[in-house]
Write a structure and sequence with these properties.
- It is a single chain.
- The chain contains three helices and three strands.
- The chain has 85 residues and is α+β, with helices and mostly antiparallel strands.
- The radius of gyration is 12 Å and the shape is globular.
């Protein structure tokens, strides 16, 4: 997984929303839940905050293993991201 640009949490959340995930925020976490495939849980991020590399790796694996999105397609999203590095 190589990328040239940072990804903000807002960008990631919008992308996951397009894949059918729904976001909810608790007092301790941000949860993105897919109606059929389960949920991704993130620490509290600001919308414009860069997503940690570990969160991107685990998201990529989750999407690929669950058959929601191929790893190469997630990599393409990372490459297209608009947040400057």
């Amino acid at each position: 997984m190589s990328r040239t640009k940072a990804v903000s949490f807002g960008e990631l959340a919008r992308f996951l929303s397009e894949l059918g995930f729904h976001e909810k925020r608790t007092t301790t976490a941000q949860v993105l839940e897919h109606p059929k495939e389960g949920m991704l849980v993130f620490r509290l991020y600001k919308s414009d905050e860069r997503v940690d590399e570990g969160d991107l790796v685990s998201t990529r694996k989750f999407l690929d293993y669950r058959g929601v999105l191929a790893a190469r397609d997630f990599d393409a999203f990372l490459h297209r991201a608009t947040t400057p590095a």
